[in-house]
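user: Here is a favour to ask of a fellow structure person. I have my own habits and do not want them to colour yours. Could you put it straight underneath, so I can go through it closely?

assistant:
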Amino acid sequence: MRIRPVSSLQGEIHLPPDKSISHRYAILGAMATGTTRISNFSNSQDCQSTLDCLRKLGIRIRQSANEVEIESRGWREFQRPLESLDAGNSGTTMRLVSALLAASPFVSTIQGDESLNRRPMRRIIKPLTQMGARIEANNREYPPLRITGSQLQGIHYGLPVPSAQVKSCVLLAGMMAQGETTLVEEIPSRDHTERALPFFKVVLEREDHQLMVSGPASLKAAKMQIPGDFSAAVYFIMAALLIPDAEICLRRVGVNPSRTGLLTLLEQAGAAVEKTHFAEFNDEPVCNLRVRFRPEPLQRFPTEISGHWIPNLIDEIPVLAVLGTRLEQGLTIREAGELRKKESDRIHSVVVNLRNLGVRVEEFPDGFHIPPGQAIQGGKVQTFADHRIAMAFAIAGLIAKQPVELDNPSCVSVSFPDFFQRLQSIGSYTTQSG
């Protein structure tokens, strides 16, 4: 796929449903008794992996367009899968479904594709083992995971590193365990699981940095609606901030504060972002975003992003690096070592591709530094089969001096199958190559 530079972007984008929320609603629906109905469910490959795993546990799932019905007799009735569960490329599927397997009275195996099987799972193995499950893994931390489930016991657990996936894994396991599970989260991460629990009749208590659930809980089916994915919106927001004649409207975007740290930073730097048509879907705030080009953010955006900002905008750092090439003071990312454990080593992937496109960049163990006063020249991009790298560097192609060529554009289907069609609809130009 070859992305060509443009001088203008204009139009309206209907975003794909939020992937993170879709995973969670599907899993909670499988744990609940009755029929859970979810509207605007993600059509990404990752969320399909979650549904496929739930089917293998005996859950009846019906899909039509973006609507999903999940019929279950509750988490106590999960059936032993007849074959290994396949999480595909989805770390969320692997980490959250493992909680269900840990609480089920059978032996099962869950694995992923080649990329996912290289991602460490020690952070879920440790708490689930403390709760009573037995988990075997390659080199004690890599999938496939062979999980011998049991009656779990509640624990008090402090998250060593902020992680919404690990947090959700522990909370899900805690709902199926005996007694109280307390999770300590010093730095907040995305909170979609916590917001969803009351709709499935689960009591979640909060106290300072602690989250508490009691089990065994009896979840009840719910009717849920999913907003547009903010992590998908960011690519178009960045395009509007980088192209002088740009104005883009994004419809029904989820603006949960635990996800929108980057938007906050952009607004503080003077970005022209208009919010209208506010609504709420199952305690998830939603609005329309209209974004126009304005030079101020390129002059006033922070020179360094680190600390508490990182968990909130972790998915957006690859495309933030593209913005960094245009910032008058450059950009430094630190304390983002988690990026090395994503679908690719995203610190390395960003650095390699910026250099491929003629940008000077310094790599750190936990981030990178992009000096000011640079331009993207164009060239070939290695996506590393990572959807966020592919989409980020597609945006780079819009502002490059020469076309940018992506080696594996199809990897965007993991989260945003229609990404290139949406990009083309607002005035960009892409062509197939090869």
Remarks:
- The mean pLDDT is 95.
